[in-house]
Design brief:
The chain is α+β, with helices and mostly antiparallel strands and 502 residues long. The chain has 2 domains: 246 residues, Nucleotidyltransferase, domain 5 (2-Layer Sandwich), CATH 3.30.420; 210 residues, Nucleotidyltransferase, domain 5, CATH 3.30.420.40. Helix content is 39%, strand content 20%. The chain contains 17 helices and 23 strands. The radius of gyration is 22 Å and the shape is globular.
């Protein structure tokens, strides 16, 4: 029996997942850590935490499983996207990593747009045409400019720029490399060519030699070095593949690798991920457009900031201590549309389709006939409407068909919420047997690189199985179609009020 390891270096923990050549999970281990917010809007992390977490988690899965390290034929990497890791000529970290959720770079985003056109709008359009994305504070490129402007001594010592996952790769193999899905989140990749954009790199004044070579997610980028073998317990010479950013790897882990199959993650935030066979993008940059972790594939991605997070806020604030099942049960008896009550889920601002940190949550349409059960159902429906916004943008951008939505995350455990989503989206909603997300996808990518499967599509077909299906109810679909039209008009009507509230 051959085995594979997927490593997921997230913001809060590094997970190691061991699977066998049939895709069965053998062992899982996670090592937790913190990140720092030394100033308002800042979010930073010491890259040493990812490496120590990787070492500890790999050693645990090997020990708990009893698998011979020589039987591990491949390692796949995934992790948090967009983070900036700066190394000097000796390969030493120059400063803490600036993370994906850091918000300090608003002025640098404006500067990037300005460099691409005579006006901000023209600059944004040209940037989106090349990269598929607008300049957002979460991306890596604005962080590089921030260091240049605010820490010139550090900037002058840069020899390599890596993403968090690729720092782990460097420690495992001694090689500098990145995957194309993760690189897409830097804002430095040309969407069509799936590689660093000479034009963007030149305009932003970044030295090309600072950027590592890019690879497809299934390609071998190096092998476990003797030093890493001693640290982790893996065998020296074990192949390490490109892998992917957490969202691309997570989509691979649920089998969203074919056009028409969409992955919907219903966690604290909500992510809609759609695979595409060509490099399509949303002209206003309201969706992310990156290469997929599989060769010849791209993806569109929409992100809402408070999905299941909205339900958690609602429960903790208005029904503290009540179990979620007990809270949601009465809402099942409320008719679709909550008798005219709507909820805006912008509790922490929003990203898709309204990139607005000042957007606010709201209940709209309250009357004396509305009970707590109405409020509960309205929250579930409001999140579903917010997720539908991403689906509508994807269709308008050229995604011609959505055959199936594969849902995962904590919110997906609710049958009521799954039915509401199916009705609002007008599409079949399914659950699958794989629940380890990005780490599982990274392990599958490693399996392709190691020759266990000929390609990613085959790997997914042989390991990912549908376990449940929820189909739309025609009567509810009609009700939600009307309610969604009202919902879409609420943000434009309230935007000015949100701004005045600050």
């Amino acid at each position: 029996m051959a085995y594979l390891i997927g490593i997921d270096s997230s913001t809060t923990a590094t997970k190691a997942l061991l699977i066998d050549e049939r895709g069965a999970i053998v062992a899982v281990a996670a090592t937790e850590y913190d990140f720092q917010t030394p100033h308002p809007l800042w979010s930073e992390q010491d890259p040493a935490l990812w490496w120590s977490g990787t070492v500890a988690s790999i050693r645990r899965v090997l020990a708990e499983s009893g698998v011979d390290p020589a039987a591990v034929v491949g390692v796949g990497l995934t992790g948090q996207m967009h983070g900036l890791v700066l190394l000097d000529a000796a390969g030493e970290v120059l400063r803490p990593s600036i993370l994906w959720n850091d918000q300090r770079t608003a002025s640098q985003c404006d500067e990037i747009r300005a460099r691409f056109g005579k006006s901000a709008r023209l600059g944004k359009a040209e940037l989106v045409r090349i990269t598929g994305n607008d300049a957002l504070t979460g991306f890596t490129a604005p962080k590089i400019l921030w260091v240049q402007e605010n820490e010139p001594d550090i900037y002058a010592r840069i020899d390599k720029i890596l993403l968090p996952k690729d720092y782990v790769r460097y420690r495992l193999t001694g090689d500098y490399a990145t995957d194309r899905a993760g690189a897409g989140g830097t804002l430095l990749v040309e969407l069509a060519t799936r590689d660093w954009s000479p034009a963007v790199v030149e305009i932003l004044g970044i030295r090309p030699e600072w950027l590592p070579p890019t690879h497809e997610g299934t390609q071998i980028t190096g092998v476990i070095s003797p030093a890493a073998a001693e640290a982790t317990g893996l065998k020296a010479g074990t192949p390490v593949v490109g892998g992917g950013g957490d969202q691309a790897a997570g989509a691979t882990g649920v089998g969203a690798v074919e056009e028409g199959i969409v992955a919907l993650s219903l966690g604290t935030s909500g992510v809609v991920f759609a695979s595409a066979d060509s490099p399509i993008y949303e002209p206003e940059g309201r969706l992310h457009a990156f290469p997929h972790s599989l060769p010849g594939k791209w993806h569109l991605m929409g992100v809402m900031l408070s999905a299941a997070g909205s339900l958690r806020w609602y429960r903790d604030t208005l029904a503290p201590g009540v179990a979620y099942d007990d809270l949601l049960a009465p809402a099942a008896a409320i008719p679709a549309g909550s008798d005219g009550l709507l909820f805006l889920p912008y509790l922490t601002g929003e990203r898709t389709p309204h990139p607005d940190p000042l957007a606010r949550g709201a209940f709209i349409g309250l009357t004396v006939r509305h009970s707590q059960a109405h409020l509960t159902r309205a929250v579930l429906e409001g999140v579903a409407f917010g997720l539908r916004d991403s689906f509508e943008l994807m269709k308008a951008a050229g995604l011609s068909e959505i055959r199936q939505v594969r849902v995962s995350g904590g919110g997906a455990r609710s049958p009521l919420w799954r039915q509401i989503l199916a009705d609002v989206l007008g599409s079949e909603l399914v659950t699958v047997n794989t629940t380890e997300g990005a780490a599982y996808g990274a392990a599958l990518l490693a399996g392709v690189g190691a020759g266990i499967w000929p390609d990613g599509e085959t790997a997914c077909r042989e390991t990912v199985r549908v376990t449940g299906s929820t189909t739309p109810n025609a009567d509810a679909v009609a009700v939600y179609e009307k309610a969604y039209g009202v919902y879409r008009g609420l943000y434009p009507a309230l935007k000015g009020s949100f701004e005045m509230l600050g």
